[in-house]
Amino acid sequence: xPFRFFVSFGMLKKFRLETVIPASPTExxxxxxxxxxxxxxxxxxxxxxxxEVGKPFAAHNAYLWGKNLVLEPHSKIIQSWRTTGFKSTxxxxxxxxxxxxxxxxxxxxxxxxxxxxxxxxxxxxxxxxYFEPMIAxxxxx
Length: 141
Fold this sequence. Notes:
This protein is an alpha+beta fold. It has a single domain, classed as Alpha-D-Glucose-1,6-Bisphosphate, Chain A, domain 4. It has 3 helices and 7 strands; from the N terminus they run ββααβββββα. The protein has helices at 25-32, 35-41, 122-139; strands spanning 3-9, 12-21, 56-59, 64-72, 76-83, 93-102, 105-116. It has a 7-stranded antiparallel β-sheet. Strand 1 and strand 2 (12-21) form a beta hairpin. Belongs to the AHA1 family. InterPro entries: ASHA1/2-like_C (IPR013538), START-like_dom_sf (IPR023393). Residues 23-137 form the Activator of Hsp90 ATPase homologue 1/2-like C-terminal domain.
């Protein structure tokens, strides 16, 4: 079960989740930025992922999409991020994913900021659609 940290700034939310993935930071980072691996490690829904700064991505049948803002190989990814549930007037939210060595693989810390109030459910979505399937995917390798 991931650690949770939650802060509210009026109508925008920010939260941080942590979990341990049974693979090296290099393996997890590379899988996150590869279309086939990203789809496989998150349950099989199609993903179009780019591994270059400034390039767009989409995952889970284009339910979510954004752009790569910062890529620090094998240690950090920062992306703009939104879902089909965002209002057209909502600004993009932002995710920061940090990958650190851990005795059991990778300590993955995800901070999601500027989340519109109506999309607060995405916090649980990270656990259900990313962390749990990733643990199973890498644990089976």
